[in-house]
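S.,

Sequence below, as promised.
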Amino acid sequence: FSASGSTRKVAQRLAKVAGADLFEIVPEQPYTAADLDWTDRNSRSTRERDPKCRPAVASTCENMADYDTVYVGFPIWWYVAPTIINTFLESYDFSGKTIALFATSGGSPMGRTLEILRPLCNASVKWLPAKMLNGATDSDLNAWLKSLKLD
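The prediction came back faster than expected:
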């Protein structure tokens, strides 16, 4: 999921480096610049901080069952993944799969991201260490992939 394009660029490069397919989490209602204004208490991104919020996803990955490892990328909003990631994770059966989270951010760390996302999936999911990939080069992406020891 990418609201401004930063995470999309990293995801595209990661897919190329990993030889992976790419699926974009697209919101049913696209985000506008006003929606993303984190300084506005009434902006959509601020209102969606509510952990119960589940923004609708416009697309579905028809062949999710075919994958053993899923990389899930997103921007960090308020020290966590946007709640559209919660919607995405709750929409599929990830039983027995491996999930690797990556993010981009203007400065916020991952915070409680994994702690919040882990309970949304079956207990049999193997969670790999999350990685902030701001400004990652192809070499950085390769190093991260190797560190995951997926082979």
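The mean pLDDT is 93.

Coffee later?
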